[in-house]
Structures are given as structure tokens and as C-alpha cells.
Write a structure and sequence with these properties.
Largest sheet: 6 strands, mixed
Order of helices and strands: HHHHHEEEHHEEEEHHEEEH
Helix content: 40-55%
Number of helices: 10
Shape: elongated
Structural class: alpha+beta
Cofactor: a divalent metal cation
Family: Belongs to the HARBI1 family.
InterPro entries: HARBI1-like, HARBI1_dom
Radius of gyration: 22 Å
Organism: Macrosiphum euphorbiae
Keywords: Hydrolase, Metal-binding, Nuclease, Nucleus
Number of strands: 10
Length: 348
């Protein structure tokens, strides 16, 4: 099925001198590279293709995968109806209303490009580009942005991505603020995030510092349940596509398409395969105790210095309206309409 979608873009014409490498082999060597992270010099013995040719094939096929899958399998919601549908899924599955996505970013470690200086140098003392992603309640990515250099600060990463520009310029129109069930204050539709992001009218983050009162800790617990989706997305991707688990020895513009291809394949496999997200592969909750059961990807040792999170942001001053929105969610989670019965046992 995947081959049928991309073969028109990767097929090569036979000549009188030699036959072209079949499209099937081109796709297979690329998928092997993404799944194993093996060097081109290693793959040449498996596919009997020279490393220089493998390099061209991988880049071309990754471009083709992203170009042909993005419209159907990696499409960002563009209407208020689609955003409300995403929010309804979060409310149904994770009991967090008005949330249309969970946002996070990861550093994709690369080998320092020649003459790049400190352009890609990050806070972990490695070189990287940043993958920014937003996931829906079903572990699918609904937005990705790849390519911001690792040197950019935590706040600058989101400020430089196209999603920020679309939200600020109102090109992406969010649903009108509505009151939460059995409440009166209208609150906007938001994304849940961690401390690496600044809180805005469309991004909600947990209360900072320790020793928070019980209602604040309940809010943080409920937000973390919803935000765990994007953690699992990145964990599953690094488990399935092991190219993400080691420094990538390619030019940054090629690393960008390698990463975009893995994102597109992630959504494609969720939609078309019953084995990609098998039971136990993602975090779940014990139906009786409600304790978290770690997904299989968490049991794999993550190599140090690869696919690490954005640097935690500094505490910022927020407007009264932003604080009021967070407080309104907090109060809602303490009501009979918004609480879940087990939330109080996780704030001790």
C-alpha cells in the first residue's frame, strides 16, 4: 500500500547501460535505514547497493513519503469543527475538556555540520535540530515542525514555528470560548504543555514550584494525564524508528526530511496497521487502582544525548486572564461534573 502511494515519485527509468534499482528495493532500503539506524556502509552488504547510492535513495524516498502522506495522514485541523472534534476526543478519553492537542518538542541529535560553529549547539552540549509536535487523543500527530536549530532557546522554538504564526495571526481560527460543563466563565480551547512553554491564551501548563495546595496538584495531575499522549508518541517513534536514537550523520536539510518521514509513517501505520500500536505499547492505567502501567517503549534504555526534551523554561509573569483560565480549569476539576473519582489518591 505504501509503495503504491509513492512509487510514481521514486521510480527511475532503465537505460541501455543498466537497469534502474527497482522501486521496491528503494523503499526497502529506506525503511531499513529508518527502522535500524544502520550506516550506509552496513546496509550496502544487505542490499548490494553502494553507500553513495543509498544516500541518494534515502533522501529521495523520505521526501516522497512525506510529500505523499502529509495531505491525508499528517493533516493539521484547519476548521473549528475539526478542532472541536479533537477536543471531544480528549474530553472522552482523558477527561480534559477544551483541549485539542498535546504539544511538546524533542531535540534530534545530529553530527555537527562543517563550518556550523555553535548554530546547532544545544544545552546538552550536543548538536541538534528540533522536532515540534502536537498530538491528538489517539496518538496521531496533527502538526509537526522540524528544522529549528538546537541553539534556539526554549521559548524561541515555538515562536519560530508556523503554528505559532498561524495562531497569532488568526489564520488558524480556534473555536469560540465556551463555559465548561456546569460552569459560567467562558474559557478558550487550548493545548496542554509542560514547563518548556510559556502559558498563553491557547497553551495551558502546570502550576510551577513545589508544595502546591491540593487543588493545584489535582490540576497538575489531570493535565499530565492529557499531556502524556505526546510523550508516548515520541517514545513509540524512537522505539520503532531507531534512527532517532542515535546522532544522525547527515546534513540538517536531510535530517529534516528523515524526521518528517518518520512522523508521516507513524500516522500512516496507526491508520493502516493493527500491529503498530498493539496492547501494552503505550502507557495505560490499571482499571482498578488507576496507577500508570508503563508502555513497552519506556522499558528500553534511551541512549544518552538523543531525542531529549526542550530545556525547561524560566518562570514567567502571566497576565491575569491567563491565570484566570488555568484557575477555572482547576475549579472545574474539583466539582462533581469535572472530577474523576481516583484523582485524590495521586496528590498525597
Amino acid at each position: 500500500m505504501l509503495l503504491d502511494l509513492i512509487k510514481h515519485q521514486i521510480v527511475k527509468q532503465d537505460t541501455q547501460l543498466r537497469e534502474a534499482i527497482p522501486v521496491h528495493d528503494r523503499l526497502m532500503v529506506t525503511l531499513r535505514f529508518l527502522a535500524s539506524g544502520d550506516a550506509y556502509s552496513s546496509l550496502q552488504y544487505l542490499f548490494r547497493i553502494p553507500p553513495c547510492t543509498i544516500g541518494r535513495i534515502v533522501f529521495e524516498v523520505c521526501q516522497a513519503i512525506y510529500d505523499n502522506l502529509k495531505e491525508k495522514y499528517l493533516k493539521c485541523p484547519s476548521s473549528t469543527e475539526e478542532l472541536k472534534k479533537c477536543a471531544n476526543q480528549f474530553a472522552l478519553k482523558w477527561q480534559f475538556p477544551h483541549c485539542f492537542g498535546a504539544i511538546d518538542g524533542k531535540h534530534i541529535t545530529i553530527v555537527a555540520p562543517q563550518n556550523s560553529g555553535s548554530l546547532y549547539y544545544n544545552y546538552k552540549n550536543t548538536h541538534s535540530i528540533v522536532l515540534m509536535g502536537v498530538a491528538d487523543a489517539n496518538y496521531k500527530l496533527i502538526y509537526v515542525d522540524v528544522g529549528c536549530n538546537g541553539r534556539i532557546s526554549d521559548g524561541g522554538v515555538f515562536n519560530n514555528c508556523s503554528l505559532h504564526d498561524a495562531l497569532e495571526s488568526k489564520q488558524l481560527t480556534l473555536p469560540e470560548p465556551e463555559a465548561l460543563p456546569q460552569r459560567h466563565l467562558p474559557v478558550p480551547y487550548i493545548m496542554v504543555a509542560d514547563d518548556a512553554f510559556a502559558m498563553t491564551s491557547y497553551i495551558l501548563k502546570p502550576y510551577g514550584f513545589r508544595n502546591q495546595p491540593a487543588p493545584n496538584r489535582i490540576f497538575n495531575y489531570r493535565l499530565s494525564r492529557a499531556r502524556r499522549i505526546i510523550e508516548n508518541v515520541f517514545g513509540i517513534m524512537s522505539s520503532k524508528f531507531r534512527i532517532l536514537r542515535k546522532p544522525i550523520h547527515l546534513a540538517p536539510h536531510k535530517v529534516k526530511y528523515v524526521t518528517l518521514a518518520t512522523c508521516a509513517l507513524h500516522n500512516f501505520l496507526i491508520s493502516t496497521s493493527n500491529y503498530y500500536l498493539c496492547p501494552g505499547s503505550v502507557d495505560s492505567e490499571n482499571p482498578i487502582t488507576r496507577e500508570i502501567v508503563n508502555g513497552e517503549w519506556r522499558n528500553e534504555l534511551q541512549p544518552e544525548g538523543t531525542l531529549f526534551p526542550l530545556e525547561r523554561g524560566r518562570q514567567r509573569n502571566y497576565s491575569i486572564s491567563q491565570k484566570d483560565v488555568r484557575d477555572e480549569f482547576r475549579e472545574y476539576f474539583m466539582t462533581t461534573a469535572g472530577e474523576v473519582q481516583w484523582q485524590y489518591q495521586f496528590i498525597c
